[in-house]
């Protein structure tokens, strides 16, 4: 993934952001309901996933996902994965100078992705369907390191790239005649880096080759 580099100083303010996250998700879901119905969407869904990847700053991550299903097999998917942790590492990135040695740091990773998927039915089991779901889309993310001792931000890097994947999904559009449905799925996505490599830059997402995740969610039929 092509990456740009930024560097900031300041004190972490993660706790207020964490407290506002549920309210942000509710507002996003309400906005989606108001916008998608006039666009011909058949249903919207909100899920949560737990993911694993080969990127060192987001080996484990989790977050919400938004699904908008249109007529036919087409579905628009937005996912947000994040992870925060602490380890002994250099707060610098790219070419690390000798004076920037290992120390306790906190790190946070955030990955946004927008994919278009096609749903193909394999088996129908009453009101449930077993589906295979190929998908293609874009991803963009950031990683930030911060010194535990000083609270100052060290290296930060971000970028985006193309991704492809597929999921195996068990879903029901409606349960018991209600507009409420749900799904559970296992997913694999692969990513390809492109663009020139910065010799002295911090490019964390060039390490990202694949993400594997398990997801559960609920849907609301609009039509």
Overview of this structure, please?
There is one protein chain. The chain is mainly beta and 223 residues long. The protein is built from one helix and ten strands. Strands 2-3-4-5-7-8-9-10 form an eight-stranded antiparallel barrel. β3 and β4 form a beta hairpin. Mean pLDDT is 80; it is low at 1-19.
**Residue fraction in strands:** over 45%
Helix content: 10-25%
Walk across the major sheet and give the strand order.
2-3-4-5-7-8-9-10
Count of DSSP E strands? 10
Biggest sheet details: 8 strands, antiparallel, barrel
Summarize this structure as a short list of keywords or feature phrases.
elongated, 223 residues, 10% helix
Topology overview:
Blueprint lengths: L1 E6 L6 H23 L6 E11 L6 E10 L4 E16 L13 E16 L1 E6 L2 E20 L5 E20 L7 E13 L17 E12 L2
Antiparallel strand pairs: 1-8, 2-3, 2-10, 3-4, 4-5, 5-7, 6-7, 7-8, 8-9, 9-10
Give a brief description.
With 223 residues, the protein is mainly β.
